[in-house]
Amino acid sequence: MTDARNTTLETHGFAAEVGRLLDLVVHSLYSEREIFLRELVANAADATDRRRFESLTEPGLAPPEAAKVRIIPDKPARTLRIADDGIGMTHDELIANLGTIARSGTRAFGETLAAAKPEDRPSLIGQFGVGFYSAFMVADRVEVTSRKAGAEAAWTWASDGQGAFTIAPGTREEAGTDIVLHLKPDADEFLDPIRLEAVVRKWADHVTLPITIARDGKDVPANEGTALWRKPKSEVGEQAYAEFYRHLGHIFDQPWTTLHWRAEGALEFYSLLFIPGSKPFEPMEQERVSRVRLHVRRMFITDQAELLPPWLRFVQGVVDTEDLPLNVSREMLQSTPVLARIRKAVTNRVLTELKTKAKDAETYATFWENFGAVLKEGVWEDSEHRKELAALLRFRSSAVEGWTSLGDYVARMKEGQEAIYFLAGDTTEALGRSAQLEGFRARGIEVLLLADPIDAFWPDRMDAFDGKPIRSVTQGAADLSRLAPLDAPEGEAADATALVAALKAALEDEVSDVRVTDRLVDSAVVMAAGGSGPDLQMQRLLRRAGRADFAAKPVLEINPRHKLIAALAARASANPAGDAETAEYAGLLLDLARVQDGDLPKDPAGFARRIERALAVSIS
């Protein structure tokens, strides 16, 4: 069926962010111009892989047996063509893929580019999904002619990179894509087949799809296309590993660790996996799936087989098996026991490697700072591996510098201490100054400081470690009564009976209880969680998510040794019936407790007025 779309030339403006992005790519990455070829070749190989995968369920879409990427320099015309036999693009896909940026905006790209070292800048193009635009580093005009597999119509996208592009009917005999670069006057080097071969060898030698370069009327192979993962470890050098790792992720750092092994026996597969040495530029929360590539007998099948659980999604690499058919379907990928066994074996192998690496605290700290928050997701959602993951967790602490483990914490526990205590919040710096810690510090009890969003969740699933319950300090106030402070508290405790009654009456709609506490030293008040509800950090997250109906009312605790509480207690005793000022002070105390815990007052404007009135009274 032919496309009945209007056959006249269409002109479109780039999405706003593309124009700025083109300027950044062309001018800020000018010294690394050769990477444009890496990006275009990688895109061509990916398009062919996608076509092969689609053909598993639609055999008519299968690419030619001799599918390859062809690089064709034309010196007289001063053009460079990159042609593939891939999935191709429709009219609308050309506009969507080449006229907008779906994954990353200019702001993030620009900020990261400004902060990056010059030698690290080439990695930004691949990581931000803007590889196609690198063509404008060497070309003053780019034309893309593409025909979608299964369609009869071809379309040509063209632009000079100056703010607009055109779409018109094109001509292509078979499905796939041709990208023609009209090279700039200073880009003659990329018309030289020898120079092009050197670039391919440097950046794309591990692409398993054949890559050829037209030279003297012949297509000359330009890459080895070696299945590196099938080679014995003894035959692969560190440089080869690094180049393949960079090819997989379009990044330029060194892998933190490399796992290369062959599984033999009832289940046979080859695997080459990498844990990156740095965080990706794009947040890992955007897509919680593993992208490890599945191959069958060297042939790429999919990167959507979810060979690792979501909490190991930072791992990159390849798994290649003989135990699945080449025409494996999507349904089979979900249900076959072979793949389930492979998933289990690969997950266990990665965990074993992490356990080994964790013995070197300094080396492991690098990994933890990059991916610890992701690994903690496994404690929340994966009961099978929860115990193993617990030993891999690392935390900041109120008692020691650097990172510490749960095992180290238990070894330092105070005599008579029954639980492992933690405090969750937004930043470790704020947590370290929290009033919540005062009573624990006074008793020499260490508290773990948890500042990742996932920290509000996982402790509920792993309620104990080494036989010790794990408890939030906002829920552990009662435990302190069993342990004496290291030093006797200063000052006498005021009789706050009347004050407690007055505060309960004034705050009955805001709190579940008001009580005297001995876990404060310097602060007048502190919030605590109710006996059966979630801890305070979880309640804050619920309110921020608009789920206040699920957040229990907190408890307000007061320090009877604090001068402010003592003065208010005396006032309440003298006036048991209470007055308007007592209610005012009650609201002020509750807001002070909220602010101390990193929350906003319920009524910020009202809080400000209360502070102003209190200051005016104290000054006058």
TrEMBL record:
<dbReference type="Pfam" id="PF00183">
    <property type="entry name" value="HSP90"/>
</dbReference>
<comment type="function">
    <text>Molecular chaperone. Has ATPase activity.</text>
</comment>
<feature type="binding site">
    <location>
        <position position="43"/>
    </location>
    <ligand>
        <name>ATP</name>
    </ligand>
</feature>
<dbReference type="GO" id="GO:0140662">
    <property type="term" value="F:ATP-dependent protein folding chaperone"/>
</dbReference>
<protein>
    <recommendedName>
        <fullName>Chaperone protein HtpG</fullName>
    </recommendedName>
</protein>
<dbReference type="InterPro" id="IPR001404">
    <property type="entry name" value="Hsp90_fam"/>
</dbReference>
<dbReference type="GO" id="GO:0005524">
    <property type="term" value="F:ATP binding"/>
</dbReference>
<feature type="binding site">
    <location>
        <begin position="127"/>
        <end position="132"/>
    </location>
    <ligand>
        <name>ATP</name>
    </ligand>
</feature>
<feature type="binding site">
    <location>
        <position position="330"/>
    </location>
    <ligand>
        <name>ATP</name>
    </ligand>
</feature>
<dbReference type="InterPro" id="IPR036890">
    <property type="entry name" value="HATPase_C_sf"/>
</dbReference>
<keyword id="KW-0547">Nucleotide-binding</keyword>
<dbReference type="GO" id="GO:0051082">
    <property type="term" value="F:unfolded protein binding"/>
</dbReference>
<dbReference type="GO" id="GO:0005737">
    <property type="term" value="C:cytoplasm"/>
</dbReference>
<feature type="binding site">
    <location>
        <position position="39"/>
    </location>
    <ligand>
        <name>ATP</name>
    </ligand>
</feature>
<feature type="binding site">
    <location>
        <position position="97"/>
    </location>
    <ligand>
        <name>ATP</name>
    </ligand>
</feature>
<feature type="region of interest" description="C">
    <location>
        <begin position="541"/>
        <end position="620"/>
    </location>
</feature>
<dbReference type="InterPro" id="IPR003594">
    <property type="entry name" value="HATPase_dom"/>
</dbReference>
<feature type="binding site">
    <location>
        <position position="89"/>
    </location>
    <ligand>
        <name>ATP</name>
    </ligand>
</feature>
<dbReference type="InterPro" id="IPR020568">
    <property type="entry name" value="Ribosomal_Su5_D2-typ_SF"/>
</dbReference>
<dbReference type="InterPro" id="IPR020575">
    <property type="entry name" value="Hsp90_N"/>
</dbReference>
<dbReference type="Pfam" id="PF13589">
    <property type="entry name" value="HATPase_c_3"/>
</dbReference>
<feature type="domain" description="Histidine kinase/HSP90-like ATPase">
    <location>
        <begin position="32"/>
        <end position="187"/>
    </location>
</feature>
<feature type="region of interest" description="A; substrate-binding">
    <location>
        <begin position="1"/>
        <end position="330"/>
    </location>
</feature>
<feature type="binding site">
    <location>
        <position position="84"/>
    </location>
    <ligand>
        <name>ATP</name>
    </ligand>
</feature>
<comment type="similarity">
    <text>Belongs to the heat shock protein 90 family.</text>
</comment>
<comment type="subunit">
    <text>Homodimer.</text>
</comment>
<keyword id="KW-0346">Stress response</keyword>
<dbReference type="InterPro" id="IPR037196">
    <property type="entry name" value="HSP90_C"/>
</dbReference>
<keyword id="KW-0067">ATP-binding</keyword>
<keyword id="KW-0143">Chaperone</keyword>
<dbReference type="GO" id="GO:0016887">
    <property type="term" value="F:ATP hydrolysis activity"/>
</dbReference>
<keyword id="KW-0963">Cytoplasm</keyword>
<feature type="binding site">
    <location>
        <begin position="104"/>
        <end position="105"/>
    </location>
    <ligand>
        <name>ATP</name>
    </ligand>
</feature>
<feature type="binding site">
    <location>
        <position position="177"/>
    </location>
    <ligand>
        <name>ATP</name>
    </ligand>
</feature>
